[in-house]
């Protein structure tokens, strides 16, 4: 919230500052320097004495009144030559001086005005100028007053901007919470806002999008679940029919055909079981958490592998200890990775595990590996690399997807890298 508030507040104050300078320069260009006007108001009493008291004196009393003003006032009034004044004033003020107007010298707290343009004064001439010094002009005070006004405006803007920023921050926090829940798989999460809230239209669009995603995923799950369950009945019938056919068959050729058909039925049955297992993994209700020792569990996973295939080299950290999670799901994920390594490796595979900030389990092989461009796709259901589409390798393209879902349910991640052995290296990272 502080970041949003200060950025917006600084932007507003910079805009006000720029507008203040723009107003100053525009006013100076059109109507004269506002600072001169302030100085003229501050020296109004001395200007009044000159214009209303000294100037309106009869010719023979002009000098007398001038001297009286000099006696009672702290302002110094002198007569100076016109040529010296022209040399000290900037060129743009010469015209006003020549017209007999009062010219302020704000920087030196003084003003100038010619004495007599028409030869009517008792003393002085058109070549002399009244020079008033030490006028009560304090532009610094005026600037300080402007600064105080600026600070007051900033303070009064502070409260509404803070309230505005806070309402937006709370709204963004709510949207962030909903996005995190949706990202974690809780698609029923919704953002709740009043209709008058500024962020309400965005929240409604997010809710609509989440609802559509939830509906599509539910439809997909229901379809897979229904199809998988519906397939179980004809599969069971086929298995029963094949058993009856085997008992009645006496032809060796027919026996071979029955064996092949039983293999296909077993494969189809395995696919259905994999689909049902993947559907169950889409919900955290699939977890049956308990504390278990990690090293014995991983060794048991290795023992469950095909004994006729390549055996992995096992390197387990002695301080692996225990962890809390669904032992069956985690071992299934590791088992899927090990079986993939057996299928696609060239005889050398390795399993290692260590504990640092979390638990890291690594499975690698010396097979052809996985191209970097396809490493993000191998976790998609039914995805197969071109070189692995030979049916002799078996599988349905669901093993890595199931492994990723199982690890994600435990708050972990699974990534694929290039192994030092030459093939693929799968890294499971789990929170401690």
Write the layout of secondary structure elements.
Layout: H1 2-31, H2 34-42, H3 44-54, H4 62-72, E1 76-81, H5 82-88, H6 94-98, E2 103-105, E3 110-114, E4 128-133, H7 139-183, H8 200-248, H9 252-281, E5 290-293, H10 294-303, E6 313-316, E7 322-325, H11 327-344, E8 349-355, E9 358-365, H12 399-409, E10 413-418, E11 424-431
Helix pairs in contact: 1-7, 3-4, 8-9, 9-12, 10-11, 11-12
Question: Would you kindly provide a written description of the structure presented here, covering whatever features stand out?
Answer:
- This protein has 432 residues and is α+β, with helices and mostly antiparallel strands.
- The chain is built from twelve helices and eleven strands.
- The protein has a five-stranded mixed sheet with strand order 6-8-9-11-10. The protein has a four-stranded antiparallel sheet with strand order 1-4-3-2. A two-stranded antiparallel sheet has the order 5-7.
- Strand 2 and strand 3 form a beta hairpin.
- The protein is rod-shaped.
- The two termini are 32 Å apart.
- The model is unreliable at 387-392 (pLDDT under 50).
The number of helical segments is: 12
Cα radius of gyration in angstroms:
46 Å
Structural class: alpha+beta
How much of the sequence lies in strands comes to 5-15%
Would you list the SSEs in sequence order as H and E? HHHHEHHEEEHHHEHEEHEEHEE
Low-confidence stretches: 387-392
Terminal residue distance? 32 Å
Shape: rod-shaped
Strand order across the largest sheet = 6-8-9-11-10
Number of strands: 11
């Amino acid at each position: 919230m502080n970041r949003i508030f200060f950025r917006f507040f600084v932007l507003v104050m910079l805009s006000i500052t720029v507008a203040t300078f723009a107003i100053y320069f525009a006013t100076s260009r059109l109507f004269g320097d506002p600072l001169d006007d302030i100085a003229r108001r501050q020296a109004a009493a001395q200007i009044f004495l000159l214009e209303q008291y000294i100037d309106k004196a009869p010719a023979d009393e002009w000098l007398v009144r001038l001297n009286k003003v000099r006696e009672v006032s702290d302002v110094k009034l002198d007569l100076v030559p016109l040529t010296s004044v022209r040399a000290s004033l900037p060129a743009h003020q010469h015209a006003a001086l020549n017209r007999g107007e009062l010219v302020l010298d704000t920087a030196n707290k003084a003003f100038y005005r010619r004495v007599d343009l028409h030869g009517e004064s008792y003393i002085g001439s058109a070549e002399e100028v009244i020079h008033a010094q030490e006028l009560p002009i304090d532009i610094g005070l005026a600037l300080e007053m402007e600064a105080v006004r600026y600070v007051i405006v900033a303070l009064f803007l502070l409260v509404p901007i803070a309230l505005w920023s806070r309402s937006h921050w709370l709204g963004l926090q709510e949207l962030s919470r909903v996005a995190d829940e949706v990202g974690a798989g809780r698609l029923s999460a919704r953002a709740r806002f009043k209709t008058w809230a500024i962020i309400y239209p965005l929240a409604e669009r997010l809710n609509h999008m989440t609802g559509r995603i939830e509906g599509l995923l539910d439809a997909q799950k229901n379809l897979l679940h229904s199809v998988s369950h519906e397939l179980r009945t004809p599969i069971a019938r086929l298995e029963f029919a094949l058993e009856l056919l085997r008992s009645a068959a006496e032809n060796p050729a027919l026996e071979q055909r029955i064996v092949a058909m039983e293999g296909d039925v077993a494969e189809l049955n395995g696919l259905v079981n994999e689909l049902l297992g993947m559907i169950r993994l889409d919900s955290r209700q699939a977890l049956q958490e308990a504390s278990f020792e990690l090293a014995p569990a991983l060794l048991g996973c290795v023992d469950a592998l095909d004994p006729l295939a390549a055996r992995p080299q096992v390197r387990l950290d002695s301080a692996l200890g225990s962890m809390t999670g669904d032992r069956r799901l985690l071992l299934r994920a590791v088992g899927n990775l090990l079986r993939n390594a057996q299928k696609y490796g060239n005889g050398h595979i390795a399993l290692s595990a260590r504990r640092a900030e979390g638990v890291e389990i690594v499975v690698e092989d010396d097979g052809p590996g996985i191209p970097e461009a396809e490493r993000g796709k191998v976790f998609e259901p039914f995805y197969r690399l071109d070189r692995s589409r030979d049916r002799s390798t078996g599988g349905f393209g669901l093993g890595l997807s199931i492994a990723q879902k199982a690890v994600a349910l435990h708050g972990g991640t699974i990534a694929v890298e290039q192994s030092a052995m030459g093939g693929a290296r799968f890294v499971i990272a789990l929170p401690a």
